[in-house]
Amino acid sequence: MSTSAIVLIVIGILAIVIIAALIKIYNELAKERILTQEGASGVGTCLQQRNDLIPNLVETVKGYAGHENQTLIEVIKWRNQSAGATTVEEQNAASGGLKQALINLLSVAENYPDLKADAQFQQLMGQLSELEEKINDARRYYNGTVREYNQSLAVFPKNIVGGSFGFKPAVFFAEDAEAKIAPKVKF
């Protein structure tokens, strides 16, 4: 066998190894991107459940505190924005506004002892509390998958393969700005 034939065989083997490595890296990035999409879908499902629950909560409060219209309007406004959000950024903004509007709604409820004692109100509040826990869990899962995916896109050689095939970093669900402010407790 001549040296040129050996060189061609070595080049061929190297080309096959490089192509196999590129395919492996592409597939890993594609799987990680799918996991981030799955995580975002999980958050979206929980947020949709919350959005479905809010009209019942608003109607219950309206029965006791119907004259608190501005608070009720704010809750519905943010709920509708949350339901219509199509990106993580939009969902972050709507979620923060909705959280504040729900806090205001609960403040209104504090002024109505009959409302606080209402069985339907208590049930809805329990469901809302459970959903908030689910949303936090779903966001944690999503942010974990985003972290893994973004880390993969940042390291060599995946950054080259990812950039070549148009893989873009995913956006984290941000914490609410209010989370850094200590709540005011009144007795």
Can you walk through the features of this model?
The protein is an all-alpha fold and 187 residues long. Helix content is 80%, strand content 0%. It has six helices and no strands. Helix 1 (3-65) packs antiparallel against helix 2. The longest helix has 63 residues, at 3-65.
Sum this structure up briefly.
By secondary structure, the protein is mainly α. The chain is built from six helices and no strands.
- The figure for the number of domains is 1
The main sheet comes to: none
Tell me which CATH architecture applies here: Up-down Bundle
Instruction: State the total count of DSSP E strands.
Output: 0
User: Which oligomeric form is depicted?
Assistant: single chain
- The CATH topology comes to de novo design (two linked rop proteins)
Give the SSE map.
Blueprint: H1 3-65, H2 69-84, H3 88-110, H4 113-117, H5 119-154, H6 158-164
Please give a handful of descriptors for the protein shown.
mainly alpha, single chain, de novo design (two linked rop proteins), disordered C terminus, 80% helix, 187 residues, rod-shaped
